[in-house]
Design brief:
The protein is built from four helices and six strands, in the order ααβββαβββα. By secondary structure, it is of the alpha+beta class. The longest helix is centred in the N-terminal third of the chain and has 17 residues. The chain is globular. The two termini are 25 Å apart. The structure holds methionine sulfoxide (SME). Methionine sulfoxide binds next to α3 and β6.
């Protein structure tokens, strides 16, 4: 898929949302939709250096489709990490500087900031989108809104 460059951020986001909607509508298996979504995000937003999904499984978070360096955090207890905190608090968490947040579980030495967005299905959290950036303070309200819309779209395949 061609990269969408030299375009306004909002236009790119709208186009990506349309492409994710099409993936969801394709009725492909969940893994395929999530993998395609991770690819669209990683390929079109250079600051999204690690893009992945964690899925709720027997009271823990289990690593699902992702793109970026392999992580040792394949299962995360809800008591730990930014990922666990986002489930407990049932809300998006933005960490502008991972070094300054004691909850942070390190995945890669290059990571400087992180956003975690819960995915809800019928009021229950079924998973989350986790994105790391090699840039400090990489995520703002526009990223939050965009990723929460994606979370809403992909919740349809859970
Ligand atoms: N940093 C996350 C762990 C997952 S890795 O970033 C892929 C956390 O603190 O929960």
């Amino acid at each position: 898929m061609a990269k969408l460059i030299f375009r306004k951020q909002e236009e790119i986001q709208t186009e990506i949302l349309n492409q994710i909607q099409a993936l969801v509508d394709s009725q492909k298996p969940k893994g395929s939709v999530l993998n395609g979504t991770a690819r669209l995000l990683k390929e079109n937003f250079p600051k999204y250096n690690w893009v992945g999904f964690y899925l709720m499984d027997e009271g823990e978070l289990s690593l699902g489709p992702y793109l970026g360096k392999p992580t040792s955090h394949t299962r995360i207890n809800l008591d730990s990490g930014i990922c666990g905190a986002a489930v407990r608090e049932e809300q998006t968490i933005i960490v502008p500087d991972v070094k300054a947040d004691p909850r942070y579980l390190a995945c890669s030495l290059e990571t400087k900031s992180e956003i975690v967005v819960p995915i809800r299905k019928e009021e229950k959290i079924v998973g989350e989108i986790d994105i790391d950036s090699d840039g400090l303070d990489a995520f703002d309200e526009q990223d939050k809104k965009f990723l929460e819309e994606i979370s809403h779209l992909v919740s349809n395949c859970f």
